[in-house]
């Protein structure tokens, strides 16, 4: 072969020996300047029976898109695919090349580039622009990847974390991730009980029996479901959610008390503008150094501000103490103290009363939160990433697209290495 051909093949990184490059030119494609490489795909035997007793029967020309260094000048490889008729079996054959799939005019190299770009936080539109393709092509590559992932039902992680997030059409989707490796196990389009049960029932009981813990928030049916699906697992309520419920209950009580006072009064200001101090762990409050508090026209330490606020109502004070003590017991992993606190008979705010009742009903799961190290903290990162993916795309209309994209961005680096072999094999 000529050195000219070798040189082009080297620069385009094409190794197919049956492809021969003849020329280059600048031409027009849809009224835009484009770079054209002219090539012939040779065929010297019948693809049906392998006979070399053939008659050449012209060429089929196709313009194959190829990744360009400069996206403003799209690159095409104009391939003339050799067609032959076999003298033995009278069948037609056409040359095939590694460059591109049969009946397709987007080169495999471009598809690899798209897959690589899909693992980054870029919108499909910008990927299409960079690879000189259309958004539809990018979506098709994404869909194709989605179908190629096969799920096996003979393994589940030992530590599962359940949660939900808002996605396509403002709907809530169920998500399960591996509590230790933080890999996504499954995202379901809905959070309905029957869908979640149907999904996990596909795993045989022996596999489900191996699940040791399931962490979740206080969603009333996740708990029942987890016990049904994973008989050997400990259900753990997420510590963050427990603390969140306590904070919310205290805030409702604080606001009720605040509304009893006139706007602008010292009592009102104490409860309104220092809300952050009440939620801070008591031991972290500044107790020594006083600061001037312009809202109160006084110089006080943080501890004094909180004490002054709580003095306004015994109910508020009880609620505060309970919130602080339960949070502390959770941090210290003190299950006995936690049990006593939840059974407390102190007079507390209405919402705190309801929260305590909820805790009593789920006592075992709450105590597990103090007993085990597992929590849903691992989901925070995943949920943040999903939000970012949705924001970059200005939302997804297609659930499969969203999920495939999440999987792609999660696997990131691995895909980039595997994509090359994947598209050649496909
Ligand atoms: Zn033949």
UniProtKB/TrEMBL annotation:
Domain spans labelled Transposase IS204/IS1001/IS1096/IS1165 DDE: 162-406
InterPro entries: Transpos_ISL3, Transposase_DDE, Transposase_HTH
Organism: Lactobacillus porci
Protein name: ISL3 family transposase
Stretches assigned to the Transposase IS204/IS1001/IS1096/IS1165 helix-turn-helix domain: 96-145
Pfam families: DDE_Tnp_ISL3, HTH_Tnp_ISL3
Top-level division of the source organism's lineage: Bacteria
């Amino acid at each position: 072969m000529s050195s000219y051909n070798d040189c082009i093949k080297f620069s385009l990184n094409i190794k197919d020996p049956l492809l021969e490059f003849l020329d280059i030119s600048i031409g027009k494609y849809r009224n835009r300047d484009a770079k054209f490489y002219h090539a012939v795909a040779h065929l010297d035997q019948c693809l049906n029976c392998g006979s070399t007793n053939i008659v050449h029967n012209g060429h089929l020309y196709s313009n194959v898109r190829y990744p360009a260094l400069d996206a403003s000048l799209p690159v095409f490889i104009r391939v003339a695919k050799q067609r032959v008729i076999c003298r033995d079996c009278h069948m037609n054959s056409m040359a095939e090349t590694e460059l591109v799939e049969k009946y397709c005019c987007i080169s495999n190299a471009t598809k690899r580039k798209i897959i690589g770009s899909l693992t980054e936080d870029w919108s499909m539109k910008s990927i299409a622009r960079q690879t000189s393709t259309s958004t539809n092509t990018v979506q098709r590559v994404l869909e194709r990847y989605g179908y190629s992932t096969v799920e096996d039902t003979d393994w589940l992680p030992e530590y599962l974390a359940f949660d939900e997030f808002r996605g396509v059409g403002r709907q809530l989707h169920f998500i399960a991730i591996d509590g230790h490796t933080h890999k996504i196990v499954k995202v379901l389009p809905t959070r309905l009980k029957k869908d979640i049960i149907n999904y996990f029932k596909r795993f045989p009981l022996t596999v489900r029996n191996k699940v040791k813990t399931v962490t979740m928030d206080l969603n009333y049916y996740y708990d029942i479901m987890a016990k049904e699906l994973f008989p050997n697992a400990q259900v753990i309520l997420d510590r963050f959610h427990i603390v969140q419920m306590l904070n919310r209950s205290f805030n409702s009580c604080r606001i009720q008390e605040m509304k009893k006072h006139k706007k602008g009064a010292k009592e009102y200001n104490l409860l309104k503008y220092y809300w952050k101090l009440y939620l801070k762990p008591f031991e972290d409050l500044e107790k020594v150094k006083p600061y001037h508090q312009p809202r109160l026209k006084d110089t006080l330490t943080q501890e004094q501000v909180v004490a002054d606020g709580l003095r306004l109502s015994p109910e508020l004070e009880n609620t505060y103490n309970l919130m602080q003590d339960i949070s502390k017991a959770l941090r210290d992993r003190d299950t006995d103290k936690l049990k006593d606190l939840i059974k407390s008979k102190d007079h507390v705010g209405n919402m705190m009363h309801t929260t305590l009742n909820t805790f009593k009903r789920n006592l075992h799961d709450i105590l597990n939160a103090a007993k085990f190290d597992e929590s849903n903290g691992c989901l925070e990162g995943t949920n943040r990433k999903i939000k970012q993916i949705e924001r970059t795309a200005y939302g997804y209309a297609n659930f499969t697209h969203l999920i495939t994209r999440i999987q792609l961005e999660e696997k990131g680096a691995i895909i980039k290495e595997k994509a090359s072999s994947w598209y050649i094999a496909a």
